[in-house]
Design brief:
The protein is mainly β. Helices cover 0% and strands 57% of the residues. The protein has a single domain, classed as Jelly Rolls. β6 and β7 form a beta hairpin.
């Protein structure tokens, strides 16, 4: 088995927040960029994408933030919509921060430059999500 090769990465040390139940782009660096570019050298390559962040939700206990990762606008695997709870509210109307991670796979059909985005949405009720101290890694 070949060792993984780092294709791209980004770091965000400032917080991003949102409250909508529709997926919205998450800033991936401190300048506010919502896309990270990476390049594959051959067609039909599977990439692994990891997104890790300090995560909190304000809302009723059980409300969660769902995180989706896309490549070139297409969903990655597993594509579960808001069924993926990145983190949940664990105290009523106050943040209880957690470290959370989402790992996904995507088969890139063509060689060349691609873009990865992360989107977040509130699910299970009304709330506000907060993602902070985040890192995104793309590996082949």
């Amino acid at each position: 088995m070949a060792e993984p090769s780092l294709l791209a990465g980004s770091v965000r040390t400032s917080a991003a927040t949102g409250s909508g139940s529709s997926f919205a782009p998450v800033p991936l660096d401190d300048s506010g960029a919502t896309e990270v570019a990476f390049r594959t050298s051959a067609p039909d390559r599977t990439v692994k994408i990891s997104y890790n962040a300090e995560c909190g939700v304000v809302g009723a206990v059980g409300v969660w933030v769902s995180v989706a990762i896309l490549v070139d606008g297409e969903p990655t695997f597993p594509n579960v919509g808001t069924d993926f709870a990145f983190c949940s509210a664990t105290v009523d109307d106050g943040y209880a921060h957690n470290s959370a991670v989402r790992n996904v796979l995507f088969k890139v059909s063509e060689a060349g430059e691609h873009k990865v985005t992360v989107e977040a949405a509130i699910a299970g009720g009304k709330g506000i999500w907060r993602l902070d101290d985040a890192i995104l890694i793309v590996e082949e």
